[in-house]
Amino acid sequence: ELKVEQNPLFLSMQEGKNYTIYCNYSTTSDRLYWYRQDPGKSLESLFVLLSNGAVKQEGRLMASLDTKARLSTLHITAAVHDLSATYFCAVDIADDMRFGAGTRLTVKP
Amino acid sequence: NAGVMQNPRHLVRRRGQEARLRCSPMKGHSHVYWYRQLPEEGLKFMVYLQKENIIDESGMPKERFSAEFPKEGPSILRIQQVVRGDSAAYFCASSPLGQGGSHGYTFGSGTRLTVV
């Protein structure tokens, strides 16, 4: 059975600091997605990674994919309060997408 | 383009009643997925449907839960004889292809079901 594991599950950061969220998955897949969810809201697509070595950046967030290691990372640079949310990675398998448990990020002043 | 439309946004049901959740996919999307999110948890896949067909229902509980996506109209997730453990947010997503592709899925705003 496919497993998608994120760590850490909870992350509290100071503003201005850097940190990385990890997403490991247990099956072969060339497509990985990162989503953001604010409390009580739906999921917003952040990044779509479609091949080994793919790297995408948007503002203070950068995502990468290593399909051989079955690992994706979401790197946060110089965190700001507005980044506080829950971040999910999701792996595309055959007909559908399976999600990690999410990383709840809190950025403190 | 109105995006993925789910209704109702909030639904309260007493134990034993039926809950019907509706999802209209984005225009041009014929693939619909339902996920359940328990409080403080991630999204659990429930079912994947195309028009008039259930493609994968491996995540759906065997009893009380059913889903359909008729030729005309929205996709419906039906929960019969609801219990307190059914309280959760139910998200619908759609895509133009049978996989995430180059854009991933587009999610609706969810239906928050509370069973009292």
Structural description of this entry:
The complex is a heterodimer of chains A (109) and B (116). Chain A is mainly β. Chain A is built from no helices and eleven strands. Chain A has strands at residues 4-7, 10-14, 19-25, 32-37, 43-49, 55-58, 61-66, 71-76, 85-93, 96-99, 103-108. Chain A is globular and about 40 Å long. The model of chain A has no long low-confidence stretch (mean pLDDT 93). Chain B is built from no helices and eleven strands. Chain B has strands spanning 5-7, 10-13, 19-24, 31-37, 43-50, 53-56, 65-68, 75-79, 88-95, 106-107, 111-115. In chain B, a hairpin with a 6-residue loop joins strand 7 and strand 8 (75-79). Chain B is globular, with a radius of gyration of 13 Å. Chain B starts with a strand and ends with a strand. The relative contact order of chain B is 0.32. The model of chain B has no long low-confidence stretch (mean pLDDT 92). At the A-B interface, strand 5, strand 9 and strand 10 of A face strand 5 and strand 10 of B.
Short description:
The complex is a heterodimer of chains A (109) and B (116). By secondary structure, chain A is mostly beta strands. Chain A has no helices and eleven strands.
